[in-house]
Design goal:
Thiol Ester Dehydrase, Chain A; alpha+beta; elongated; 140 residues; single chain; 5 strands; 3 helices; five-stranded antiparallel beta sheet
Length: 140
């Protein structure tokens, strides 16, 4: 069912758990799908001994993709006109992530209705790992 402007108000939220217990396998699968083979995401020895991190960690774009999954589940496929994020903290193997979209504006431009959203994805400790915004076309 399409999201409708008449059914929304500023402050409405939509939340989803986008991953539970992120595995190293999922991180490596993302590396293969994206072609991003930076050893920080798959080589424990390099990451801990050479780079000084406590462990390998997820690609930022994997976290953005998981956030995008929540977003398109909410607004529908093919409706996004803008989607941008910033990565605020690393995502580690074992993390569980919940994403939330909050309606910040409902507007009309050229006869088309739009919803503006703020986005936040947090880990199991409540630490934000992604912050962003999006705009989508919606039905009246």
């Amino acid at each position: 069912m399409a999201l409708k402007a008449s059914a929304l108000k500023v402050g409405d939220t939509h939340s989803e758990r986008v991953v539970e217990n992120l595995s190293r396998t999922q991180i490596v699968q993302y590396a293969g799908a994206s072609g991003d083979y930076n050893p920080l995401h798959s080589d424990e020895v390099y990451t801990t001994q050479a780079a000084g991190y406590p462990s390998v960690f997820a690609h930022g774009m994997l976290t953005m993709g998981l956030t995008g999954k929540m977003l398109t589940n909410y607004v529908g496929d093919g409706t996004l006109t803008k989607f941008g994020v910033r990565f605020t903290n690393q995502v580690w193997p074992g993390d569980t992530l919940d994403s939330t979209a909050t309606v910040t504006a409902l507007r009309e431009e050229g006869g088309q209705h739009y919803v503006d959203l703020t986005l936040s994805t947090k880990n199991q400790d409540g630490k934000e790992v992604v912050a962003g915004s999006a705009t989508a076309r919606i039905d009246p």
